[in-house]
């Protein structure tokens, strides 16, 4: 029997979105602090080394983004339908997948490293530093993926305050350890990787403790058959496969962007790295509202409540558009000063200022892609998401080929075309999504 769908208000949206925004800001600060810490070391290669090393793990770990996104959608729908057993079973399935996948990544670290650095090009100095980073951080794979599952579960429950606590434990610990190891112990990129490994481990311990506390009030769970029920497994695996393909296509775009920038030299690589921190930080703010759309859209779908789905889409988008405009104004005004904070290298500063308008305006377009992603994830319309992202990736490559004569400006323009392709593709699927939910 479907659960009841609560009336949505601006207060409801903000109660979910604001804690996610705060936790996401702390996540964004990790990259900013990493860049700022190694930016105290003269030379662009250190920033580039962390950038390439982090990019490899973005590629590897984002492939398992379904552990966050799929868990959110499936949990929210179980909550909307009032199925307490399934709420817990979703988490247990996700944790089993996370631990198995993380262990496999450790076993396959040599081929992963060699393939990754063959695809992601940089100077010899940058690649040597990035390899040092990889060899340490790969050992965090099981706990990193487990943290994805835990965060997705709490967001799906609408308990973003709990998710905030978990993310703050992870991110603040990471920031403190990175600064300690690099500035205090002189460990360069190895300190950044070690700090991340230890912080992820601490966060898993905190997350499991929070789960036990939350489940303390749930009794009479009959999970032994539900966890491995064939129909549930098929649905979970189908959602996971679609999101994995979609995420790999998205990561490919970012890998291509960074690698094409790296071919233009260490200075352009460093400048693009700094500016992409601005883009990712703005995305972290906007993702707070997209995550609210995920949780509320999923709950509405689980409760078979079309009006609730439309309300979640409308109210979260209103807040997202206003937030994106505010972020863009801040980036245009404060961008030059922020660039100076992140690097002392004069050439990198000058290059980043030259391309700043591209990064500052990105939130105005990206907001629509993030909102649509949130709605489709909550509704677990993952096949549509997969197809839309594959189409957008093809459009991006065509745009890059046409615009490549314009150098780094052409690369940024192709990135914008990718946003437009994502938005247009998902808008084509949106009416069918809405019609699939009963009135």
Q: Summarize this, please?
A:
This protein is mostly helical and 439 residues long. It has helices at 10-38, 45-62, 66-81, 84-107, 109-119, 124-137, 141-156, 160-184, 188-215, 224-227, 230-262, 266-302, 306-342, 346-378, 382-403, 407-435. It is globular and about 60 Å long.
Describe how the helices and strands are arranged.
Blueprint: H1 10-38, H2 45-62, H3 66-81, H4 84-107, H5 109-119, H6 124-137, H7 141-156, H8 160-184, H9 188-215, H10 224-227, H11 230-262, H12 266-302, H13 306-342, H14 346-378, H15 382-403, H16 407-435
- Percent helix: over 70%
Instruction: Give me the strand/helix succession.
Output: HHHHHHHHHHHHHHHH
> How many structural domains does the protein architecture include?
1
Structural class: mainly alpha
Output the number of helix runs. 16
- By oligomeric state, this entry counts as single chain
The number of E-state strands comes to 0
Give average pLDDT, whole number.
83
Estimate what percentage of residues fall within beta strands.
under 5%
Output the radius of gyration. 21 Å
Q: Alpha-carbon distance between the termini? A: 16 Å
Basic shape: globular
Low-pLDDT stretches: 1-5
For the biggest sheet, the summary is:
none
Q: What can you see in these coordinates?
A:
Helix 1 crosses helix 2 and helix 3 runs antiparallel to helix 4 (84-107). By secondary structure, the chain is mainly alpha-helical. It has one domain (10-435). It is built from 16 helices and no strands. It is globular.
């Amino acid at each position: 029997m479907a659960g009841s769908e609560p009336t949505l208000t601006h207060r409801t949206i903000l109660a979910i979105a604001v804690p996610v925004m705060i936790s996401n800001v702390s996540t964004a600060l990790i990259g900013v602090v990493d860049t700022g810490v190694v930016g105290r070391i003269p030379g662009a290669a250190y920033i580039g080394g962390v950038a390439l090393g982090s990019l490899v793990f973005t590629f590897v770990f984002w492939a398992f983004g379904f552990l966050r996104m799929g868990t959110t959608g499936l949990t929210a729908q179980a909550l909307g339908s009032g199925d307490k057993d399934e709420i817990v079973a979703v988490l247990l399935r996700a944790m089993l997948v996370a631990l198995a996948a993380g262990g496999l990544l450790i076993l396959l670290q040599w081929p992963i490293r060699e393939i990754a650095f063959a695809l992601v090009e940089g100077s010899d100095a940058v690649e040597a530093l990035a390899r040092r980073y990889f060899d340490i951080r790969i050992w965090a794979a099981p706990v990193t993926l487990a943290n994805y599952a835990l965060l997705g579960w709490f967001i799906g429950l609408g308990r973003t305050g709990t998710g905030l606590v978990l993310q703050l434990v992870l991110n603040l610990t990471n920031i403190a350890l990175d600064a300690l190891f690099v500035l205090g112990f002189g460990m360069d990129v190895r300190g950044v990787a070690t700090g991340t490994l230890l912080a992820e481990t601490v966060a898993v311990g905190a997350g499991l403790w929070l789960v036990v506390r939350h489940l303390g009030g749930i009794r009479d769970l009959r999970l032994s058959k539900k966890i491995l029920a064939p129909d549930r497994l098929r649905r979970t695996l189908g959602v996971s496969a679609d999101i994995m393909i979609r995420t790999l296509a998205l990561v490919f775009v970012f890998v291509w962007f960074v690698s094409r920038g790296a071919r233009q030299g260490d200075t352009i690589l460093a400048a693009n790295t700094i500016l992409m921190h601005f883009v990712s930080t703005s995305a972290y703010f906007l993702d707070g509202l997209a995550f609210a759309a995920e949780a509320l859209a999923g709950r509405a779908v689980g409760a078979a409540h079309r009006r609730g789905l439309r309300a979640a889409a409308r109210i979260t988008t209103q807040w997202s558009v206003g937030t994106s405009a505010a972020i863009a104004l801040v980036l245009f005004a404060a961008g030059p000063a922020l660039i100076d904070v992140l690097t002392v290298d004069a050439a990198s500063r000058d290059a980043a200022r030259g391309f700043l308008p591209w990064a500052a305006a990105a939130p105005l377009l990206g907001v629509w892609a993030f909102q649509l992603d949130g709605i489709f994830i909550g509704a677990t319309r993952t096949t549509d998401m997969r197809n839309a992202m594959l189409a957008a990736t093809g459009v991006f490559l065509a745009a890059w080929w046409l615009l490549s004569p314009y150098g780094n400006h052409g690369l940024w323009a192709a990135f914008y075309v990718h946003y437009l392709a994502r938005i247009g593709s998902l808008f084509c699927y949106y009416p069918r999504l809405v019609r699939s939910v009963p009135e």
